[in-house]
Each structure stands twice: as C-alpha cells, then as structure tokens.
Amino acid sequence: MRNAHLLLFLGSLSALQAQQLDPAFNGGSVSLQPGNQTVVRAVVQHADLGCTWAGSVAGDQFDILVGRTLNDGTPDPAFGTSGVMLLNRATNSFEWGYDLIVLDDGRLIVGAMGLGTGTNEVILCRLLSDGTLDLTFGTQGYAVVAAQSDSPNDLKVAIALAPGGDIVAATIGFGGSQGRQVTLMRFSPDGVQDPLFGGDGVAELDFVPGQADDQFAGLHVNTDGTILIAGHHAYNTAPTTTDLAAARLLADGTLDATFGTGGVTLVDAGTNGDEDLTFGSALLPNGDLLLLGEVRTNPNPRIAVVVRLDPDGQLVTSFGNGGKLELDAGETPLSENTRCIRAVPRPGGGLWLLIHSANGSSNVVLTALDDNGSLDASFGTNGYFRFGMGVRPEDLVFTAEGRLFIVAAGAGINLPSALFLALPSGTTGIPSRSHAELAAYPNPCRDRLTVEAEVGGTWALHDTQGRTAASGRLQVGRNSLDLSSRPVGIYLLRMQLGAVQQVFRIVRE
C-alpha cells in the first residue's frame, strides 16, 4: 500500500489561469496523515463548511478512515477525534474505505471492502454527523455481505442512493470460467440486504456473457430507480483487447433491454487502441453518461479518453469525434501517459475533468471543456492546469458554493500532502446576490420558494447526489416553486436565463 495525502482545491478561474494555490488554505497545503499508509479515495461536500473524505489507514492491520476538513484547512473539531474517525470493526482486520455518501440529514454512508474468511466482503457503515457510528444501521452500525471473490485485486466498491433511500453497492465477483463479473447488491435505508434483488440478493452482470473479464469503474442510480454501471470488458483474444462498457439495470437487478444493445453498450474508444480502460464515470443532469479512462495505443502511449452516451446508451455524436474525445493533457505526442478519472459539470455549460498524468512524474491535471468537447483555451495553460507533483488524483466534487475539492493518493512515501484553491463567487457562473438577475427567497425555506426573474427561463433543483429533483419554467416577475414534496436537506437550484446560468444553494427546513 502507498502513503496518500488529501488535496483540496477551491479557486477563481483567474487563479487557475495564473496557476496559483490559495494561501488562505493554511498557506496552500495541509497534511492529512493520521497514521502510516494513509490512503484517501473519496470526498463529498460537508454543507458549506468544508468537505468529508474517506479512505484507510494502517492500524492493527488496516482500518477504515473518515475525516472532515474545514474551508480554512483545519480539522473539524466537532467530527470524530480532532477531525478524524477510525473504524476498526474487528481486531486484526483488513478493511479499506472506497466510497462515501452524505445524506440530507448530515449522516454518512461509507462503502468499504474487507478481507473476510475465504472471501472478500462488502462493508457498509453509517455514521452520525459528528462521526460516531450509528448503531441503528445494520448490525451495530455495519452491513457486511460476501463479495463472491477472494482476490486482493478485486478489492473495490462503489455505492449510490436509490429513490426512497435504498443503497445500491457494486463490486467485483468471480464467475468461474467466465472470469470476473460485476456484482451488485441492494440494501434498505437501515442496512438490510434485499434478498430478492437480482433473484437471490445479488445481481451478476457480464458485459459479454461467456467471455472474461469485466471490471467496473462507476455506479449511478437514476431518479426512476434504474441503475447504471460503467466499466470495461476484456475479450478472449491474444493479445488481450478491451472496450469501454456501460450497462443499465432495472430496479430489480435485471438488465434493461431498452439501453444500448440488450442492456449493454460497448465502445472501441481509440483510433488505434488495443486496450480501452475505464477508471471513472459521471452522470450528467440531462441523463447523459460519461465513460472516463484511457486508450492504450500501439506502441506504448496511454491517452486520456472521454466517451459520452445519451440516456439510451448511444454515442452523442456532437461531442468530440463522434462521441469520443482523446486528451493529451498537454504532453508531447507519443510519450503521453494520461488517464481521465472524474468529471463534473461547469456552471454555464461544459465540463471540468480530472486527469492523472504520469509522464516522468505523477501529477494532477484539471481541464475545462465546452459542451461539444472542445478545450477551453482560456483555462490554465492551453486548457490545462497542472499541479500536485508526486500524487495520484482519486476523486473530485464541485460544491454548491462554487468550490472544487480534489483528493489524491501519494505515488510514494515522502510527498506533498495537500493543496487548496479557491473558486470565489462571481467567477464560476455562481453569482453573488448583488450581481444576480434573480432573487430566491426565503432561504432556508419550508414548502415554497419565491424566485423573482427579470427575464423568462428555466429552473432545475438538484439534490446532493446531483440528481434532478424537480424542474420547470420561470416567468418574468415573481415565481412560486412548490418544494413541499421534497425531503428536508440541501439542494442546488440552477436557473437558466437565455445564455446566462445562475446557481443558488437552497436549504429546505
């Protein structure tokens, strides 16, 4: 295992173009290393105070690690012990945190993997907002299920919330002669496994039945309950060739035949690619799915790639080159070693992409795209902002206040620990109230929110998982939005007025 460090970025586009780190964040860096071999893999926003992150740390063996960092770079003293919570379910256990969900009431769901007796284990646990274990979840705070694989190479899990609060988990199983396959499970909001999901409690997915091997890299649940899986498939060929893959399941765990071809879409992403690998995915507000990864070309370069699919699993041909986009991250041709791992929408349109560049040294690269996949040359240097030498990016979240948080693992032992970059109001498409063409009040609100607009447009309300909760049109003047059916919590209200998009963070009490 490697040491790892947390990177947090929050900044204005002018700061990104100048490639400056924010000195207000503890002088620009924060070390998060509560123990040996600390690995941070996931990050979520914590209201408007900072972020919560999850990973693992060496304990008696390896323990699940959860922490919270405030916007000034200091640990949150109200969380765990000095901002950190260690979860040691059993003595001499090997357990690693991989994914994290924040619920509307501030509680946290952690997705983790463990080495069990004869098999890997999927572990879910729920924490209260102060970091203490919620003993009402599962059995004494934990839900543990065998993962159908005993290989350390298959230690990976993703979790997502379904409508009604159910939790869907995805990991890697072993299908005998068919090799690795994606396995999924469903849990009630209180951590009880659904015994009927997939027919016997586990749904098994082969992108191509009868052929090895499948890997997954992303999990999403739509508002209608359907489940999206992103990954890649290796064919039984010599030498091995792989394609990017996506599949959609119905809420009961069976394939949705209306997606792609029989429920699955396979994409040969590179023009000369032998191996196309997926390392992440993103579900956009309009329902499009991004497959993020790399194309390994002949002879050696690895080039970051983005593939965009519409809600039916078909390539969005207006994006990039027929739905596919290769990115060299500014590296010299034929020596690229880049992969795309995360993406989030930019206010006003387009995408921010998180890229891992490993040409000579390991770096974090942030880039900005227009809606059609064209590089925004005004961003960074020729569209790229490079930083964090010696680290490997893991996760990215864009907050309702206009901040980017990035976590990265170290590529060695003695490496820079943390960075922070500000994205203040007024420079990212999220305006200050003094410059807004809209007013939204009261905030916090209860059943109804009033929006005053100078021109007509549209609005969409998104929950903390990025899912669209409600939408409609705005008329000139005063509009009353009915939020009475929405759960209490934090929402992002996006309003489009012609070419101008404005975003407000809304709290429903």
SSE layout:
Layout lengths: L12 H5 L21 E8 L3 E9 L3 E9 L13 E4 L7 E8 L5 E8 L4 E8 L14 E5 L10 E5 L5 E8 L5 E8 L15 E3 L8 E8 L5 E8 L7 E8 L14 E4 L5 E11 L5 E9 L4 E8 L14 E4 L10 E8 L5 E7 L5 E7 L14 E4 L3 E8 L5 E7 L27 E4 L6 E6 L3 E6 L5 E7 L2 E6 L6 E9 L2 E9 L1
Antiparallel strand pairs: 1-2, 2-3, 3-4, 5-6, 6-7, 7-8, 9-10, 10-11, 11-12, 13-14, 14-15, 15-16, 17-18, 18-19, 19-20, 21-22, 22-23, 23-24, 25-26, 27-28, 28-31, 29-30, 29-32, 32-33
List keywords for this structure.
509 residues; 4-stranded antiparallel sheet; Immunoglobulin-like; mainly beta; single chain
Description:
- With 509 residues, the protein is an all-beta fold.
- It has 2 domains: 13-410, YVTN repeat-like/Quinoprotein amine dehydrogenase (Methylamine Dehydrogenase, Chain H, 7 Propeller), CATH 2.130.10; 433-508, Immunoglobulin-like.
- It has 1 helix and 33 strands.
- The chain has one helix at residues 13-17, and strands at 39-46, 50-58, 62-70, 84-87, 95-102, 108-115, 120-127, 142-146, 157-161, 167-174, 180-187, 203-205, 214-221, 227-234, 242-249, 264-267, 273-283, 289-297, 302-309, 324-327, 338-345, 351-357, 363-369, 384-387, 391-398, 404-410, 438-441, 448-453, 457-462, 468-474, 477-482, 489-497, 500-508.
- Strands 1-2-3-4 form a 4-stranded antiparallel β-sheet, with no helix packed on it.
